[in-house]
Amino acid sequence: MVHRAFPLDLSAAFSRFRRMNRERLHFAAHSHHWWPDMTREAQIEAWDDAARLVDDKWDMVLEEVWREVAAGIARHLNLPDPTTLVPAPNTHELVNRLLSACPADRPARILTTDGEFHSFRRQIERLAEDGLVDVRCVPAEPFGSLSQRLAEAAHKGSFDLVFVSQVFFNSGYALPDPAHLIEAVSAPGRLIAIDGYHGFLARPTDLGPIADKAFYLAGGYKYAMAGEGICFMHCPPGIAPRPRNTGWFASFGTLAGWQEGVPYPEDGWRFMGATFDPSGLYRMRSVLRWLEAERLEAATIHAHAVALQERFIMAMAEHPVGPFAPGRLVVPLDVTARGNFLTFACANAATWHRRLRAAGIVADVRGDRLRLGFGLYHTGADVDRLIERLRRLA
User: Fold this and answer.
1) pLDDT tens digits for range 299-323
2) Residue 76 scores a pLDDT above 50
3) Residue 36 has what DSSP assignment?
4) Taking Cα atoms as reference points, which of 153, 173, 170 lies closest to residue 162?
5) 62: closest CA among 80, 26, 86?
6) Which of its termini does the chain have fewer beta carbons within 10 Å around, N or C?
């Protein structure tokens, strides 16, 4: 057991991003994380492998590189078998492949919440416009009763797909017991998916008990610190064996032989797409290696973020600045079911967002809510600088 003092100081590992952002305070760690230095070497390694191997690089990418990445992801999610994982450039591709596994002879019946991220929400709302899906949205708030209300709705309807976030992007609320919820909404023939983008490497996540029941989607753009172009999905064995949206990489290992029909592998690769930029896999591999070498787990990362959140809120409790008062938190600090960012309700959030940006503070706005994210690249001193600059701004 490694005993650590929180918050951590891992600033040396992010020296390149820090040098290029000396004056700007980047607190959008729920949106785009800074990348640790070793990802630059990984990006160059991807280029060098392409030059060295040319056509044969895909054997390297899909075997050696992906196997190591999948093993690292499985370790952090407590998945019993890394082969249930499949990569994609973004979760939108994965969402569409998942939707293509729903019945084709009628509109797919989908149960979800009104707090889902745009990669899912926009797509299903557009499909609903043409009557291709039938969507039931359960209000995400009040949070305390959300799991119960989802379970009740699931029991009352014959849904083909239940889709819910592990951590909600517009509030920071985290499902307190995802495994219990998955058990509660399960039904024969029903697909269940968890959007884990704000949960992966942000909160301890144990998919072991539900690895045979639920899909799980996440990626490297946020807390995995690996940048864009590298997402993944855990695919429970035996469920949705033949998605209609299928790419040629799903049969990559059998291309040289004669194929009859449209064959699918039995593991997560059945949800594979087509040609993609593999550099994201190299970057994520380097991050996963670094996390293992530093013995950093999701629990450690979350504890670091919570310590920074508490430091910020304690200062705001003494001298509130504009919308950043503890009473404006959408998810109060004493609620442990929370992600690694804080969300503040603010009627003039867009105005404040512009003021923050002009002052060199990178946050973001979603409607009437401002979000501040805290990541491994932040130190306690960074939060102190944020507090000082906010007070000058006020």
Assistant:
1) 999 999 999 999 999 999 999 999 9
2) yes
3) P
4) 153
5) 86
6) N
For each of the domains in the chain, give its residue range(s) and CATH number, in order of start: 11-27+297-393 (3.90.1150.10), 42-291 (3.40.640.10)
Q: Name residue, tokens 């799980």.
A: 216
Torsion of CA 149, 155, 156, 157, to 10 degrees: 110
Q: What is the DSSP letter of 133?
A: E
Q: Extract the tokens encoding 165.
A: 């976030």
H-helix segments, the chain: 15-19, 38-53, 57-59, 66-77, 91-99, 118-129, 146-156, 178-185, 279-293, 298-318, 349-358, 380-393
On the question of pLDDT at 255 being above 70, the answer is: no
Candidates 123, 87, 74, 77; CA nearest to 102 is: 123
What is the pLDDT, as a whole number, of residue 260? 76
* 138-170 residues labelled b (16+ CB within 10 A) or e (exposed): bebeebeebbeebbebbeeeebbbbbbbbbbbb
Torsion of the alpha carbons at 247, 248, 250 and 252, rounded to the nearest 10: -160
Q: Which residues contact 256 (CB under 8 A, 6 or more apart)?
A: none
Residue with tokens 């979760």: 91
Distances (CA, A) of 278 to 229, 271, 359: 8, 17, 37
DSSP conformational letter for 181: H
Do 232 and 89 contact (CB within 8 A), yes or no?
no
Measured between alpha carbons, how far is 306 from 373 in angstroms, rounded to an integer?
10
